[in-house]
Amino acid sequence: GWASDGARAGTTGIGYRVEALQVRILAKGSAAPGPTDGAYRDVADEKVIGVSRIRLVTWLTQHQYDGYYLGTPYSTGFSVPTCTYPNGERRWDGYSGMNCTGFVAHAWSKCGGNLAAVAANNSHSPWAGGPGGGSYINAWRFYGYAIDSGSKVYEFNKVQDLLNSGLARKGDVIFFKTAPNVDCHIGFFWGDNPRDNKMWHSSSPANHISSIYNYSNPAEINQHVCLIK
Fold it and tell me: Cα–Cα distance between 131 and 32 in angstroms, integer?
């Protein structure tokens, strides 16, 4: 967003460097040349499902280009032993593989997240008996834990509605809340600004950074997009 007349601009508390500066000289009293929301924020105390946003974004940024996560094969095993091993931290036998929630779980736990509490959650799924198997690599358990732990959860009809809201921040968790017959999906918002359409996630064939979508339901039918902080 645009700032003027000595107001603060940019981000503090997360160690980002200044990468660009744009200046417009306008007549006094003129309207800003664009949106003014989000011109400045201090993220030192912000959390993402209870863990420090700074720690989470720093951890992921450190591994954005080293192949630790990116390129890890997508796993359909739907178990902790088959879905939580990135290229940078392979299983004892050299195997690497993650599903979407395995990636989120691994990064989140590295920053202090309590996976046992996620595994124990049995709430807020579309099924009366709970989300089913998979322990903490089941995305519905992450969604339920986020709600029950008091995290902020914003729900939108479409990805574009999420981007238009201006609420997204790097490191937020994106959860595709689906109908019972459609596979859900989860990952991290990775845009450099609230309207930057980027998501870091694991989907077939491998972990990658892309536009925001549910690989099982790209047409966004019978689903909502949740932004979790």
Answer: 48
